[in-house]
C-alpha cells in the first residue's frame, strides 16, 4: 500500500507539471503571435496568458499553506478534518480541468474543427470555455473547502436522496388541496 505522504507529493508534482506544460505552451503561442501583423491577436493572447498565469500562481501559493497545515497535524481537529485535503481540493479541480480541456482542444478541436479559423477566434473559444470551467471550479472548490460542506453535498447526492428526488411517478405528492382556516370556517357556520 502506498504511503499517503508520497501520494500527496505525487499529486503535487503532477499538478505542477501540468501547469508548467500549460504555461510553456501558452508562451509558445505568445511567441508565434509576435509576428508582425498580428497586433490585435497579440492583445487577446496576452490577456488569456495573464488569466492562466493567475490560476497557475494561485495553485503554487497552496504549497506554503499545506506546509504550515502539516505543522498542526498533531491537533485533534486536524486529525478529524484533514484540512490539507480540502486545501488541495482547488489544485486538483483546476489541474483536472486543464488536463482534460487542453489536450482535447489542441489535439482534436483545433485540428478537425477550427483548422482554418484565425488565431483570434481560437483564443476566443478558449476564453469562453475557460470561463465556463472556472464557474464549475469555483463551485466545486467552495463545496469542498470544509468538511461540513463536503458531507452535505455528498449526502445530497446519496442514493436515498436521489430516489426521493426522482419520484416523479408519484402523482399524490404533487396534488394541491384547499385548506380553510378554522376561524373562517367557524364564522361561516355561525352566520348561516
Automatic annotation (TrEMBL):
The UniProt record lists the keyword Heme: no
A Pfam short name: 7TM_GPCR_Srz
Domain of life: Eukaryota
Sorted UniProt keywords: Membrane, Transmembrane, Transmembrane helix
Membrane spanning stretches: 12-32, 44-65, 86-108, 128-145
Keyword Membrane attached: yes
Protein name, entry field: Serpentine receptor class gamma
Organism lineage string: Eukaryota, Metazoa, Ecdysozoa, Nematoda, Chromadorea
Amino acid at each position: 500500500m502506498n504511503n499517503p505522504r508520497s501520494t500527496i507529493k505525487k499529486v503535487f508534482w503532477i499538478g505542477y507539471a501540468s501547469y508548467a506544460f500549460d504555461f510553456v505552451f501558452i508562451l509558445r503561442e505568445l511567441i508565434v503571435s509576435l509576428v508582425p501583423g498580428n497586433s490585435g491577436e497579440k492583445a487577446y493572447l496576452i490577456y488569456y496568458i495573464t488569466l492562466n498565469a493567475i490560476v497557475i500562481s494561485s495553485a503554487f501559493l497552496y504549497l506554503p499553506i499545506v506546509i504550515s497545515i502539516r505543522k498542526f497535524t498533531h491537533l485533534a481537529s486536524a486529525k478529524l478534518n484533514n484540512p490539507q485535503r480540502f486545501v488541495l481540493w482547488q489544485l486538483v479541480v483546476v489541474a483536472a480541468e486543464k488536463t482534460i480541456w487542453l489536450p482535447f482542444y489542441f489535439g482534436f478541436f483545433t485540428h478537425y474543427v477550427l483548422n482554418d479559423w484565425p488565431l483570434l477566434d481560437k483564443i476566443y473559444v478558449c476564453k469562453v470555455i475557460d470561463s465556463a470551467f472556472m464557474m464549475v471550479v469555483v463551485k466545486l472548490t467552495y463545496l469542498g473547502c470544509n468538511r461540513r460542506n463536503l458531507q452535505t453535498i455528498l449526502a445530497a447526492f446519496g442514493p436515498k436522496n436521489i430516489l426521493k428526488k426522482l419520484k416523479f411517478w408519484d402523482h399524490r405528492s404533487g396534488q394541491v388541496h384547499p385548506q380553510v382556516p378554522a376561524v373562517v370556517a367557524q364564522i361561516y357556520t355561525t352566520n348561516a
